[in-house]
Amino acid sequence: MNFREYKIGSRMFAVALGGSMCITLLLPSIDIASVDATSISMDKQLTAGWETGWNLYDPLLLGWHKPVKVLLKTDPKSGQPMEPVYAYVYEKGTPFSGGVLHPDNLGPHAKQLSLELGKISAARSGEGAVFLIKTDDQNRPYIEDATVTMGWDPGAVLKAAGDENTSHAGAGKTLFVREGCWWCHTLLPEQTQDWQVFGAPPMLGDFNGESPTAFGSDRKAPDLLHVGSRNSSREWMMLHFYNPRLVQPHSIMPRFDYLWGEVDASGNKIDYAKWDEEFDAYRDGKRDQPPEVPTYAPNSEIRWLIDFVLNMK
Known about the structure:
Radius of gyration: 23 Å
Number of domains: 3
């Protein structure tokens, strides 16, 4: 009798747990599938590319095969000035984002607009592509393949934009995941007093096609979802990442100076030991000013990470 009651209780628990998981996971997924992607989600997925994390394209999480986001002020075909627009450049072989590969992720209206007006079904990763975020006459966002609709070549777009208007935020997200930034920082303000400090929480439709969301699980440091709006100083970010104690004396954040690599922007070898010695003297009151943080090289990993942080607005 006791054993029979145990079996009945186990089955009832299984039914309750299964029903709970159905309500928690399955039903919301049906709702999410019917929600159109916002321009925010399109920006995030086009910036980061197909996936961030371990995959065959980047097994060591080095930021390989990632698109770049550029602010385009000159028409790449005519060379004439144009109204500034953000373009997402996928060079040959770079895997496309989830919304381009699987338009269903965009939601019904965004999918239809992206296929009919944006011509995204004609994009081929083996040839490369340039994507834009457009809106129709009802202000509904969609993705456009400018390589098809406007004849923009990825290489020509990168050349027209120049390095100063190029953001490697996609590779930076890989470093954000690899370096464990999400262990302490969340990308998910809560619907409480967080609004006043960290900005509004994300809305349904802000995550279509993004993988992963990197929400984080245990906030030990400020939320970063809108950090680029709160602090857009690249110089401050350099100090903070090189040694957080330069800007916050009691910070528990680890140093990320190693992301600078071997040389600075001028090609000179970075002497980390000398810098540490001078900083220790400054901290102990034996030096009036802290040592100068080296300017990073254009192809350094720290540039990518800072690009990603500043891109979150």
